[in-house]
Design brief:
Distance between the termini: 57 Å
Strand order of the largest sheet: 1-3-2-4-5
Number of strands: 5
Order of helices and strands: HHHEHEHEHEEH
Helix content: 40-55%
Structural class: alpha/beta
Shape: globular
Radius of gyration: 21 Å
Length: about 150
């Protein structure tokens, strides 16, 4: 009830009735990119996969996922967090299997989530399903050779 009343009051305000904002307050936000954004990317197409994953000199973790997959929604952020902790030693590529069926077939993905570890264009390790942070850390350390 209180929420409806507050919403009505807000909607009844005209633009003149809103408190004025100082120009500096409107433009005070600065853009910053986190380390997570730099180490994780979405694959756009087959040639993007070739360029950014297969031909990448760094090891790449490839997360094959789907929007409708519940376990993928748990594993994805957990894996991104663990990759970000590696401070650029490994990258993460995200592949939506509904958008990139050809890549899923090529890499024999039969269930999601499927995660591949790729080094120098070759698949060196793989797991299917959800993992906890300790298992993910061991998976990543094995990939980067630490």
């Amino acid at each position: 009830m209180a929420q409806r009343l507050a919403l009505r009051r807000l909607l009844s305000l005209t633009p003149r009735a809103l408190p004025p904002q100082a120009p500096a307050a409107r433009h005070s936000r600065a853009f910053s990119a986190s380390a997570n954004c730099k180490s994780t990317f979405n694959v756009q197409d087959g040639s993007d996969f070739q360029d950014r994953v297969v031909n990448n000199p760094k090891p790449v973790v490839v997360d094959f996922h789907a929007q409708w997959c519940g376990p993928c929604k748990i594993l994805g952020p957990r894996l991104e967090k663990m990759v970000a902790k590696q401070e650029g030693k490994v990258l993460m590529a995200k592949v939506d299997i509904d958008d990139h069926t050809d890549l899923a077939i090529e890499y024999e993905v039969s269930a999601v989530p499927t995660v591949l570890a790729m080094k120098n264009g070759d698949v060196v390790d793989k797991f299917v399903g959800i993992k906890d942070e300790d298992q993910l850390e061991a998976f990543l350390k094995k990939l980067i050779g630490a």
